[in-house]
Every structure is written in C-alpha cells, then in structure tokens.
Amino acid sequence: MTKHDPHALVKMADQIAKNIPDRAHVAKATGAHIKSFWAPSMITTLSEYAHKHPEEVSADVRGALAQLAQ
Question: On the chain, which terminus has fewer CB atoms closer than 10 Å, C or N?
Fold first, then answer.
C-alpha cells in the first residue's frame, strides 16, 4: 500500500471544495469528485486523518467524507 501524506491530501481536498461553484452542495460534489478520481488508499488516509485531527480539516471536506461513508 502506498503511503500518502495526509497534509497534502487535506490541501488537495480543500482545493477541490473551494472550486465547487454550487456552494449549497459543496460536500456532495466534493465527495463525488474524490470518489471518482482518488485511489481508495488516499480516501482512507484522509478519512483517518480527519477523524484524528478534525480541527485541521475544513467543514466542507469533513462533509464530503461523511457523504462517502454513507
């Protein structure tokens, strides 16, 4: 399994969220983008990091991860 830098993943996920034009559905759209384009290992690393350090992950990205967990 590839080791991913969680800080880089947080930054990438934040950039995705910031570029979603429909702010009312940013979590859903961010989650869909991550699911479509990220490797499962990247999602797992980001999810684990967000669980341990929620204060370092934006609300939009936490919402996206919640969408992915459903």
Answer: C
DSSP secondary structure code for residue 19 in this structure: T
Identity at 36, one-letter amino acid code: S
Q: Nearest CA to 5 among 69, 22, 13?
A: 13
Domain tally, the chain: 1
Cβ burial, residue 55 (10 Å; 0-12/13-18/19+): exposed
pLDDT in tens, 17-50: 999 999 999 999 999 999 999 999 999 999 999 9
Q: Does a structural domain hold residue 38?
A: yes
